[in-house]
Design brief:
The protein has two helices and three strands, in the order E-H-E-E-H. It is α+β, with helices and mostly antiparallel strands and about 90 residues long.
Length: about 90
């Protein structure tokens, strides 16, 4: 039985530069991705869009989404700290 799972994750940011930085930070290195998993991330204007497709286990699918959102959160925090630090200079 085939178990094809798909998701589109859209994250909106205040500007294109932030979206580009987050998209670059979360773009995964698919060289070691499990068989059947495809993750493609890009940005359109101020929105980061990630397409996830998996022919496999639901646990792998949810772990991939969790990893993506954690990476996005880390990128957002890093950008915030960098902006705050540069504003203080």
């Amino acid at each position: 039985m085939r178990n094809l799972l798909q998701a589109t994750i859209r994250l909106e940011y205040p500007d294109r530069a932030t979206a580009a930085a987050v998209a670059n930070a979360v773009s995964p290195d698919n060289a070691n991705a499990p068989a059947g998993l495809t993750v493609v991330t890009h940005h359109e204007n101020n929105v980061v869009i990630t397409e996830i497709s998996l022919d496999g286990k639901f646990a792998t699918f949810t772990a991939t989404i969790d990893d993506l959102l954690e990476a996005a959160s880390t990128a957002e925090k890093t950008l915030h700290i960098a902006k705050t630090s540069s504003d203080e200079l």
